Amino acid sequence: xxxxxxxxxxxxxxxxxxxxxxxxxxxxxxxxxxxxxxxxxxxxxxxxxxxxxxxxxxxxxxxxxxxxxxxxxxxxxxxxxxxxxxxxxxxxxxxxxxxxxxxxxxxxxxxxxxxxxxxxxxxxxxxxxxxxxxxxxxxxxxxxxxxxxxxxxxxxxxxxxxxxxxxxxxxxxxxxxxxxxxxxxxxxxxxxxxxxxxxxxxxxxxxxxxxxxxxxxxxxxxxxxxxxxxxxxxxxxxxxxxxxxxxxxxxxxxxxxxxxxxxxxxxxxxxxxxxxxxxxxxxxxxxxxxxxxxxxxxxxxxxxxxxxxxxxxxxxxxxxxxxxxxxxxxxxxxxxxxxxxxxxxxxxxxxxxxxxxxxxxxxxxxxxxxxxxxxxxxxxxxxxxxxxxxxxxxxxxxxxxxxxxxxxxxxxxxxxxxxxxxxxxxxxxxxxxxxxxxxxxxxxxxxxxxxxxxxxxxxxxxxxxxxxxxxxxxxxxxxxxxxxxxxxxxxxxxxxxxx
Length: 499
Fold this sequence. Notes:
Layout: H1 11-19, H2 39-53, H3 57-73, H4 76-86, H5 94-107, H6 112-126, H7 130-138, H8 143-158, H9 166-185, E1 192-196, H10 202-211, H11 220-226, E2 231-237, E3 247-254, E4 296-304, H12 315-329, E5 335-338, H13 345-359, H14 367-377, H15 383-396, H16 403-422, E6 425-426, E7 429-430, H17 433-440, E8 444-449, H18 456-462, E9 466-470, H19 476-486, H20 493-496
């Protein structure tokens, strides 16, 4: 039994549950008048036990709905306490597992029937008690979405805990259990790819607008442009989560591989007084599409909308499905590329400079760069003062308004960005999460673009720099295999030339 089914009226039964280790005293406290300090938590743990122990299908469905309603009514403090009380139930009974394994090893050769029975018993014991709870919720209408949101709450709760604490480790195991179940239910085989147009349901369009994280939309006009001529938006949906786009992919149809957001978005945001790329004539035509004039698809935004599905890879499959749909619609498309942000570049650079200044680690700047930066940073060639001034410039972000400073910083920042994307690693894979995602898919690190996104977000994340990851369809499988198995990162010569 996951939790004692009856909460009873007496103190003894409640305290008995506590002594069994099912609930910690600080989670659910008894009072002298046989009531509970926190009634919402009391109800949640009661429903948890009822849901696990119930055997009548109609009652299971009713209790599932009541469970979800009560959970959503908890305030943040109660929610965390409930999750912390629930998390230990992810652990299996080690004593029972050890005993059953011992019996199996003694009997697996003597009797096939007895060995088979022990195998079944071992499977049941190895399944965490909490799986029955989640499985029953997942089988009800809206249950999968509820569990996705619950895992989001677990991940959020973990952020406020010490990683070495028992509570953090218990929540981590709870998150893993939810992830394993959701990975089976949110299977690619059940997913469908859908193109979004201006005629799509307004509820779906609203969610596309709300979920867009890479290049936020300002208004409905922005959204209309995103789904308008020479633009495509695709979503990944699942039958268990009706009306919820799990992944959103934005595509621009162009004549060439775009090197700036001004090629893709109409009136893109920009910080004041920064130089902007000229807008190509073909980018925003408010007329009928002439698809014969395009040969390139640019993936300029991909967003996973559900935090509770973190770690479950869906974006990879959506890109491949989108390529197939685009090739079906426009067979002559010959170039597929991203125009991607570099979210970690500026923070990495500031950290490298800080470490050099405070800890004496090797400088990220070459001697030639120190000399070139000396005038704009501090007026002399003293290395430490140049790098301190350079750190101040990058941190303040005010350098983009002075053309001389921009021209001086351009070759330095492009080289450092090439180093960050190509050479900086985490566990032998690309340090930048976006780079790692696309390279794992089989794309090539193709080109680094100066001042491609001069928006406040772009300047704050990557000093305005963006990158193209090019998808050569004939090489995707080989590139992906080499990267995953041998840590080989495919790169174009124009990136290497920056180093």
